[in-house]
Amino acid sequence: MSSSSTIDRNLGLELVRATEAAALGAARWMGRGNKIGADQAAVDAMRYILNHVDMDGLVVIGEGEKDEAPMLFNGEKLGNGAPPAVDIAVDPIDGTRLTAEGSPGALAVVAIAERGTMFDPGPIVYMDKIAVGPKAKGSINIEWPIEKNLQSVARARNKDIDDLTVVILDRPRHKELIQRVRNSGARIRLIRDGDVAGSISVALPDTGIDILVGIGGTPEGVITAAALKCLGGEIQAKLWPRNDEERDSASALGLDPDRILLTDDLVAGENIFFAATGITDGELLDGVKFFGNGAQTTSVSMRSKTGTIRYIRAIHRWDKLMKVSTIKYDL
Question: Under DSSP, is residue 250 helix (H, G, I), strand (E, B) or coil?
Fold first, then answer.
């Protein structure tokens, strides 16, 4: 890899500044029922911060095409153009509906890796996934029946199946999957949204989550792979075209929906940074707390090269911050 693509400094704190800004912007819209307003605030704030980072960034995992604002779109350039050259995956709000409704678990998320190492899913917006933490790494196979995967994970975790907790998105398409998991004896935690948070929970201690299964967003799958490489976990996935048109479009780009995508297929880099900040209170991170002339945020920063995981609780003062930023935090 060329020196321009070598990440030779810790970008973790700069990414946290971006997720903090997105979370602060989005949290102003919590519970106001306006998903577009929340998304716009998060996108604008995250873009502003990332464009001031010393990097030559290319958005590989974004939210859509350029003319569909508010979005950090696929192919957008971020940073000031200086080395290193990096791929970027962004989700300014993982859980837009959660934010709009004031429900728990919404996060602002960003990940970066060396240029050319992130998987580009093209037009396919969904993928079938299975994810586990470090203790169950190597025990799963997305092509096995769910019952066999649960048995294998239980052995790896030194548990009985009825001790396992499985995260599944609460969607009609998962009706049969949910019933089969219940019939196996495992417990289920259904989540309405927040695919990234649900996936990461399998690899963090004290969450009580053992495995995530089911069909969710493809962008979230790549972001999850970045986080799990930092945490030592594993994800396997297969693209899930919704119709013949999507399948044909994927084939035209050389994407095979039958291919099993491993963690390293989704993010091949070995020097990956991941950051997330809570927007609304959740099991992984506390949400934004406003206190008149400022706010408090809680974030996590990870780096795969060192295995370091940092939790950061920050106080933001409007009287100071607004002197150095054009972002309107104090609406």
Answer: helix
Task: Tell me the residue type at 101.
Answer: E
**Residue 69 confidence (pLDDT):** 44
The burial of 66, by beta-carbon neighbours within 10 Å (0-12 exposed, 13-18 middle, 19 or more buried), is given as exposed
CA distance 276 to 8: 21
Q: Please state at what angle helix 146-156 crosses helix 175-184, rounded to 10 degrees.
A: 50
| 3-class secondary structure, 266 | helix
Q: Tokens 């106080």, residue?
A: 315
Whether the per-residue pLDDT at 201 is higher than 70: the answer is yes
Please check whether residue 100 is in contact with residue 234, taking contact to mean a CB–CB distance below 8 angstroms.
no
Which value, to the nearest 10 degrees, does the dihedral of the CA atoms of residues 237, 243, 249, 254 take? 30
* Alpha carbon distance 93, 73 (integer Å): 14
In the chain, count H helices and then E strands.
10, 13
Residue partners of 21: CB distance under 8 A and separation at least 6 = 45, 46, 48, 49, 327
Cis peptide before 70 (omega within 30 of 0): yes
Note if the pTM is more than 0.85.
Answer: yes
Q: CA separation (Å) from 169 to 174, 178, 188, 251, 306?
A: 8, 10, 10, 27, 32
* pLDDT at site 329: 67
19 in helix, strand or coil?
helix
Would you say how long the chain is, in residues?
331
Q: Are 226 and 113 in contact (CB under 8 A)?
A: yes
The amino acid at residue 284 is: L
Treating both helix axes as pointing N-terminal to C-terminal, what angle do 12-27 and 35-50 enclose, rounded to 10 degrees?
Answer: 150
For the beta carbon of residue 305, count every other beta carbon within 10 angstroms: 14
Q: Which of 71-80, 255-264, 276-285 is least confident?
A: 71-80
Q: In this structure, which amino acid lies at residue 288?
A: V
Contact 72, 42 (CB under 8 A): no
Residues 54, 107: Cα–Cα separation, whole Å? 24
